[in-house]
Write a structure and sequence with these properties.
This protein has 3 domains: 287 residues, FAD/NAD(P)-binding domain, CATH 3.50.50; 108 residues, Flavocytochrome C3, Chain A, domain 1, CATH 3.90.700; 136 residues, Methane Monooxygenase Hydroxylase, Chain G, domain 1 (Up-down Bundle), CATH 1.20.58.100. The chain is 36% helix and 18% strand. Strand 1, helix 1 and strand 2 form a beta-alpha-beta unit. 56% of the residues are buried. GO terms for molecular function: flavin adenine dinucleotide binding; steroid dehydrogenase activity, acting on the CH-CH group of donors; succinate dehydrogenase (quinone) activity. Its EC number is 1.3.5.1. It catalyses: a quinone + succinate = fumarate + a quinol.
C-alpha cells in the first residue's frame, strides 16, 4: 500500500506547482493523474498570466481590477495574496525556463486583457499554458527521487478516518483495472473544473468535476457554484476557444449591421470589458436579431484589423484553428464566434493556504474556490490562481506533514469501490446509455444555466438533473474489460458531474439578483444589501443540497457600481 506525506490528485499547473513546492520542503510526494500530466487541461490556457511586473504598475491596481471584475463577490484578503505574490511567481517561471515574449527593448512584453486597467499580461504567443506546463514537468523530473508519479490512475474515492480526517484515496490503474489504496498525511485536490457539465464547452473531456464532487461527498462545502463563466469568443461551429488575446491585440466584435456594438455596453473598455459583460452584450445582440451566420446565432470577431505580421507572431494557434475548424483565414476575414461555457468560479471552499474544512484535505486551481474570482474571473488570472495557490497548498501541506505520523488505512473503501465498479459493468442493457444522459445534461445546462437565467428555466433544469440522477443509477456501458476501460470511468464521471450540476442549479436558484456571471432576467439588478455573500452548498444524503452562507471578506475596496 503506497504511502506519502503529500498526495496530489491532478497534474495540471496547480498540481505540479504543489508537487514542486512540497518536494522542495523535503517531504515525500506523489502526484496522480487520469491522463499524462502534459495532457492536463492547463495546456489549453492560451492568452497569458497577469502580474504587475511593469515598473509603472502596482499589485494594488491588479487587486482592484480583480475585485471589480468579481463584481465585489471575491474575498479581498485572498485577492491581495494572489496579486501581491504574482510578480515573484512570474519571475520564478522565467528563471526556470518559461520563454515569455519580450519587446524590442528586451523587457517582458505585456498585452492588454479584459477588465485590466493597464497592460499586465505576460504571454508566450497564444500557448502560455502549454509553455508553463512543460517547464514545470521538466522541473518535476529533477525531483524524481522524492516525487512518485502515478500517471493514468483514476481516483474513485477519498478516504476519511473515524475523526473525519482525510487519510488518502482509492484509485484505479486505468491501464490494468487494478485498484489500490493510497495512504497520505495530506491530500491536495488539483483535478480541475467541471466544463463537461455543459455542451458545448471549451473544456477538455477530462474536466468532469471529479475533485469538486469527491470533496463534496466528503463533507466539504462548495462555494459560489452558481458563477459559471461564458467566454465571449468560442468558435460558433464547435465551441473551441478563441483566445482573449485576439481582442487584447485589437480585434473588433461586429454585429450583422457591421457595428462595434460594445460601444453601447462598455464605451470605455469596448471589447476589453470583463468577460461577463462582453458575453451578455453578444447574447443580447443575438437575441435581438443582430447576430450573424446560420440562424443569426453568432457574432463576427474581426482580427483583420490586427497587423498580419503581429497575428502570425502572437496568435498563431488561432490562425490554425480558424483554418482547420472553420475554414477561415483570420488574417483576411472575420470569424464567427459566440459566448461559450469556459470556467467555473465556484468550487471546493478553501482558505488562502488551500486548506478545506476537512483536516488533511486541500484544494487548488479550478477545483477550488478561495474565492479570488467571485462572480467573474478576469482573463489571465486563472493561470495565476493555479500557481499561487498550488504553491501555497504544497508548502502548507508539507509543513503539516512534518508534525504528524503516517495514518493507516484498511481496505474497506477499496472493497466498496470495487463492488460499485462491478455493479456498473454488470448492469443489463435496459436503461439509458451513459453518453445519452451526459448529452441531455449538457444541453439542458447550456440552455437554462447559461448567460441569462430565470426562475422557470432553473426550476426546469433542476427537475431534469434530479431525473438524470435517477436514470444514471441504471445507465449501462458496453466495455466489460479491465484494460483502459474508459466506459466504466465515464459512468463514474457522470455521477460526479450530476452532483456538481445540481449544486450549480440550486445555488443559481437561491441567488435572487444579478451579479457577475449570474444574470437573472427576473432579478436584473445587483442587490448588495441582501446578496453580497457567498452561497455554499453541502451534501444532504441523496436529497437536494443544503444551502448556507458565508460573508465576503472586504479589506479596502467597498462595493461600487461596476462600469467599463
Amino acid at each position: 500500500m503506497p504511502s506519502h506525506d503529500v498526495l496530489i490528485i491532478g497534474a495540471g499547473l496547480a498540481g505540479q506547482r504543489a508537487a514542486l513546492a512540497a518536494a522542495q520542503a523535503g517531504v515525500t510526494v506523489a502526484i496522480m493523474s487520469k491522463v499524462h500530466p502534459v495532457r492536463s487541461h492547463s495546456v489549453a490556457a492560451a492568452g497569458g498570466i497577469n502580474a504587475a511586473v511593469s515598473v509603472t504598475d502596482d499589485w494594488r491596481s491588479h487587486a482592484y481590477d480583480t475585485v471589480k471584475g468579481s463584481d465585489f463577490l471575491g474575498d479581498q484578503d485572498a485577492i491581495e495574496v494572489m496579486c501581491s505574490e504574482a510578480p515573484a511567481e512570474v519571475m520564478h517561471l522565467e528563471h526556470i525556463g518559461v520563454t515569455f515574449h519580450r519587446n524590442d527593448d528586451g523587457l517582458l512584453d505585456l498585452r492588454a486583457f479584459g477588465g485590466a486597467s493597464v497592460k499586465r499580461t505576460a504571454y508566450v504567443a497564444d500557448i502560455t499554458g502549454q509553455a508553463i506546463l512543460h517547464v514545470l514537468y521538466e522541473q518535476l523530473m529533477k525531483h524524481s527521487d522524492t516525487v512518485d508519479r502515478y500517471e493514468e490512475w483514476f481516483t474513485t474515492s477519498l478516504i476519511l478516518d473515524d475523526e473525519g480526517t482525510c487519510t488518502g484515496c482509492v484509485a484505479r490503474n486505468i491501464r490494468t483495472g487494478d485498484m489500490e489504496v493510497f495512504t497520505a498525511k495530506n491530500v491536495i485536490l488539483a483535478s480541475g473544473g467541471a466544463g463537461q457539465i455543459w455542451k458545448p464547452s471549451t473544456n477538455a473531456l477530462i474536466c468532469t468535476a471529479d475533485g469538486i464532487t469527491q470533496a463534496y461527498r466528503a463533507g466539504v462545502p462548495l462555494m459560489d457554484m452558481e458563477m459559471i463563466q461564458y467566454h465571449p469568443t468560442t468558435l460558433l461551429e464547435n465551441g473551441f476557444l478563441i483566445t482573449e488575446g485576439a481582442r487584447g491585440e485589437g480585434a473588433h466584435l461586429l454585429n450583422s449591421e457591421g457595428e462595434r456594438f460594445m460601444e453601447k455596453y462598455a464605451p470605455n473598455k469596448m471589447e476589453l470589458a470583463s468577460r461577463d459583460v462582453v458575453s451578455r452584450a453578444e447574447q443580447t445582440e443575438i437575441n435581438e436579431g443582430r447576430g450573424v451566420g446560420e440562424d443569426g446565432a453568432g457574432i463576427y470577431l474581426d482580427i483583420t484589423v490586427v497587423p498580419k505580421k503581429r497575428t502570425l507572431e502572437a496568435l498563431r494557434e488561432i490562425v490554425n484553428i480558424g483554418k482547420d475548424f472553420a475554414g477561415v483565414d483570420i488574417t483576411k476575414e472575420p470569424i464567427l464566434i459566440r459566448p461559450g461555457q469556459h470556467y467555473i468560479m465556484g468550487g471546493v471552499k478553501t482558505d488562502v493556504d488551500g486548506a478545506t474544512p476537512v483536516p488533511g484535505l486541500y484544494a487548488a486551481g479550478e477545483v477550488a474556490c478561495v474565492s479570488v474570482h467571485g462572480g467573474n474571473r478576469l482573463g489571465a488570472n486563472s493561470l495565476l490562481d493555479t500557481l499561487i495557490f498550488g504553491r501555497r497548498s504544497g508548502e502548507h501541506a508539507a509543513e503539516r506533514a512534518k508534525s504528524m505520523t503516517m495514518p493507516t488505512n484498511d481496505r474497506t473503501q477499496l472493497l466498496k469501490d470495487e463492488a460499485e465498479i462491478k455493479e456498473i459493468i454488470g448492469r443489463p442493457k435496459t436503461g439509458r446509455r451513459v453518453s445519452e444522459i451526459k448529452d441531455e445534461l449538457g444541453t439542458v445546462m447550456n440552455r437554462y444555466v447559461a448567460v441569462f437565467r430565470d426562475e422557470a428555466g432553473l426550476q426546469h433544469a433542476h427537475e431534469v438533473v434530479r431525473r438524470l440522477k435517477e436514470e444514471a443509477k441504471s445507465a449501462y456501458i458496453d466495455d466489460q474489460g479491465t484494460v483502459f476501460n474508459q466506459d466504466v470511468l465515464g459512468a463514474i464521471e457522470l455521477g460526479y458531474m450530476l452532483d456538481a450540476a445540481e449544486c450549480c442549479v440550486v445555488a443559481a436558484l437561491e441567488r435572487k439578483e444579478s451579479r457577475g456571471a449570474q444574470f437573472r432576467t427576473d432579478f436584473p439588478e445587483r442587490n448588495d444589501d441582501e446578496w453580497q455573500k457567498h452561497i455554499n452548498t453541502s451534501i444532504n444524503g441523496d436529497d437536494v443540497p443544503t444551502i448556507h452562507y458565508s460573508p465576503v471578506t472586504i479589506t479596502q475596496w467597498q462595493p461600487e457600481e461596476r462600469k467599463y
